[in-house]
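Entry type: protein chain
Record version: 2
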Amino acid sequence: MVLQTNEGEVQAKKELEDFAKSLKKQLSAKRGALKSKPSPFKFKKLRMHSSSDSTPIKTETWKHDSGIKVVFRKQSETPTVSLRIGFSGGARFDAIGKEGQTELLSRTWSTGSENFSESEVNHRVDTMAASLSTFGGRNTIGVTCDFLNQFTDDMLEIVTDTIRAPLFSEEQIEREKEILLRQIKSRSDQPSSICMKLFLEKLFGEHPYGRDVYGTEATLKHLHSRELKKYFEQVVTPSNMTIAVVGDINKAKIEEFAGRLAGAVPQRTFKAPKFGLAPLVQDERVVSDTKKEQTHIVVGYRGLDIHDPNRFTLQIIQSVLAGQGGRLFVELRDKNSLAYSVSPMRMEGLETGYFGAYIGCSPEKAEKAIGMINHEFKRLTKELISEEELLRAQRHLIGRHNIDLQRKSSICQGLLLDTIYGIDPEETFHISDKYFLVSREDVMELSKRIFSQKSVTSLVGPQNGSNGKDKGL
């Protein structure tokens, strides 16, 4: 066992001993739990087959009487099924003082339910060569699973129990909290993570997007089974539920499954919180001094919301700037040797998002790097991009999207989130039209809109290395 720390030998030895005791205790408890073997699972003989149905593939949507929204796409080229169940929720539902609640819930949700222990779920899922996991993001939480269609009934039984009656046992919660706390501590020693955290805090202020989704040691300390169950009951209700299914499965089976969930989950009043966002009144700069021999910088602006039709144009802008042939790499790294790494970054949210660029560079080059990033942003507002740049960006985005459409899991996740956000689920299958409609003039107009706003610059690195040398252009 190895520990790297700035603390003294005595304190380091104590931490190692405490960790060893904790680990021994958890392993002992785990061995005790495993003494009760999972109930035998009868493995079915594997018969690989796929339907020869030549019916054109289409996406169907409907709403169950309970309020559950269903989006279904029958694809029978392989005998597999992707299933996603999602809810409006996520970190935006984490109250102040309870940051990290969504992250902790996503890590403990599938660790046991009323009818299946954690080891039993793992055993069954592994035996079927399936996958089952839960997720929590900024705006949603949910369950994902992928399986062979011959195991449909078995997987739907496990998923139903996971949605209906998760245990959120204190033992599993404490285990995941300890792991999460160590990850938080590890990130606090990563300047790039600190840089992004400071950027989001300054850009979004009191809005939930400005908070750390992992929470802090202080907030996690107060999260227990009671809090997670209360949060779960707040968002997991039929009127807030969306089911997305893609694969070799009959529509009648999905209708039956939706009805089963409607009967298993109590109907509760669901109310999504609304958040305002104070305008940025001036350019902001936030600095954190570290002893690392590298400076990390994020320069960014507020971006677009999920429903903004210009989001496809913003993706074009990102693609023009990105990659080894993109403007940021060519101008800052190739021509000026400013960057260890450099890339644009983008996020669309419910109220707004962000757009900007990250760069890692030598401390003495920090100010010039910031100046050149801003210069490249301003260029987009004054000069039309070339036809070659536009076509390169369009082809790159369409190609990457088409690759995603080869996986049922990607299609299913896209259908789920689009349905939750109120976006036409058919849009994802006609995305090339959206990109090819973007013109060079559209890129310039949106660039003016984005880059005329007040900016936020986050800089993490040794401040004595950026003392006025090499400043800007």
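Comment: The longest strand covers residues 80-88.
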